[in-house]
Design a protein that fits this description.
The chain is an all-alpha fold. It has one domain: Growth Hormone, Chain: A, CATH 1.20.1250. Helices cover 76% and strands 0% of the residues. It contains 17 helices and no strands. Helix 1 packs parallel to helix 6, helix 13 runs antiparallel to helix 15 and helix 14 runs antiparallel to helix 17. The chain is globular and about 75 Å long.
């Protein structure tokens, strides 16, 4: 039943499951990703709830989607990040260090502007500017992970990234409760310090040697080639899917906070519900996803998560139909189970994403994927409020489930074809390197 096409193998070495894994390296990569997940969760979950409580109309929620727009331009920023870097500091660290410091300073600046309708344009402006800095950081971090992880480490490494990413997401969602108890200023200042702490291990650890494909490209003086990446056959499937995946992932999630605010939930209650369900749902799913994949398959694991989407929509419609807020223990367990189930699909796709990038230009490849994913995120954030405001939550939640299902079905149906194309592309890259090195001739 296992339909994994060697999720952990380098081209030319498809049976590396027994190789030793570098857990300190994987832990460093995972902690580094925590610095990325907080801003995404904070702007996607905490801010919508806070501004809805302040009275921001659902039709105006497109404003809160603007900070994600710079991430759509990552495919252009990646050409700079992938082609330039300080070899002495580390090609990736020379970007990670300054962008992390810049992001920390920007989020500390937010402490001076509490989330009110009067300051929304200032806050969004700061976050949009920060989006460009965070985009460069994302590119360097993702390329760092894609290059540093060997294929036999990829499932475990991605799982660790997802687990600690979930922890960081908990912090982002818990910002709602922290604002209620400690105030906006202290919350933003502490959050900025935590972002710096999360990046410190990667800043001080020696950067791993880039993979042979990257070294060969640099030795020949070649630059990362965006056009070549776009023209690849596998990109014709991966890039449209990443747009669908990003839109489906955020369309539903972006309205959960406003929904509970409209149901009369207090900041304190949401500050308990969001992180509690994120801990049990997100962390548990991140831990069990690779376990399920090893014992079944990637497609079967994704199907489990996708099958729960209609159930999730029906449950939220029930919450809307029944007056009042259910008892918090029951609500936390219900939301956590739904989150766990649907995240099985999300985390399976995350493992595939690291597998799909080219070792020769990991930053450009992964950023091209991320650009399409973020375009979907921006599209979802810009339209979800309009749909919910115009048609109501009883229509919105089924539509949101359908949007996610479209991308999920595409992934399940085309997964094997994409994996085969990726393996063929990797074999071609190895062959090209050998030809350029004179190890084989054109006819070999």
């Amino acid at each position: 039943m296992n339909d994994i096409v060697s999720p952990g193998a380098e081209a030319g070495d498809r049976s590396s499951d027994t190789k030793k894994k570098d857990y300190p390296k994987l832990a460093t990569l995972s902690v580094l990703h925590m610095a990325q997940y907080f801003p995404i969760t904070f702007t996607g979950v905490a801010l919508p709830f806070l501004f809805r409580q302040e009275g921001l109309p659902l039709e105006m929620f497109w404003l809160l989607a603007l900070p994600s727009f710079p991430r759509w331009l990552k495919f252009l920023i990646a050409l700079v990040v992938d082609n330039y870097g300080n070899e002495r500091i580390g090609r990736r660290k020379s970007w990670i260090i300054p962008t992390t410091i810049g992001a920390v300073l920007l989020y500390a600046t937010l402490s001076f502007f509490p989330p009110t309708l009067e300051s929304i344009y200032i806050i969004v402006g700061i976050l949009v500017f920060g989006g460009f800095i965070m985009a460069a950081q994302d590119i360097a971090v993702d390329a760092y992970a894609a290059e540093a992880m060997q294929d036999h480490e990829r499932a475990v490494g991605t799982s660790l990234i997802n687990v600690l990413g979930s922890v960081s997401s908990v912090i982002g969602t818990a910002a709602v409760a922290l604002v209620a108890y400690f105030g906006w200023e202290i919350t933003m200042f502490v959050a900025s310090i935590l972002m710096l702490i999360a990046a410190l291990p990667a800043m001080v650890r020696k950067e791993p040697t880039p993979p042979p494909a990257t070294l060969e490209r640099l030795a020949r003086g070649q630059k990362a080639d965006l056009v070549k990446a776009i023209k690849r056959k596998d990109s014709h499937y991966i890039l449209p899917f990443m747009f669908m995946f990003g839109m489906g992932q955020v369309f539903f999630l972006s309205m959960v906070g406003p929904f509970w605010a409209d149901q009369g939930m207090s900041i304190g209650q949401y500050g308990i519900l969001a992180p509690a369900s994120a801990i049990t749902g997100g962390v548990l799913a991140a831990t069990l996803t690779p376990w399920l994949i090893e014992r079944t398959s990637m497609r079967f694991t994704a199907i489990i998560g996708l099958s729960i989407l209609p159930v999730e929509a029906a449950v939220y419609c029930y919450f809307y139909y029944v007056p009042g807020i259910p008892a918090m223990p029951v609500l936390i367990v219900t939301v956590a189970l739904l989150s766990f189930s649907t995240n099985l699909y999300m985390y399976t796709v995350t493992i595939s994403r690291f597998r799909w990038v080219s070792k020769a230009q990991a930053g450009t490849d992964y950023s091209m994927q991320s650009s399409m994913w973020n375009l979907g995120v921006w599209a979802a954030g810009s339209t979800a409020g309009l749909v919910a405001g115009q048609f109501g939550y009883m229509v919105f939640f089924p539509v949101a489930a359908l949007v996610t299902m479209v991308g999920g079905v595409f992934y399940v149906v085309k997964w094997r074809d994409i994996e085969t194309m990726v393996l063929d592309r990797e074999d071609g890259e190895v062959r090209e390197q050998k030809m350029l090195n004179g190890e084989i001739g054109n006819g070999d």
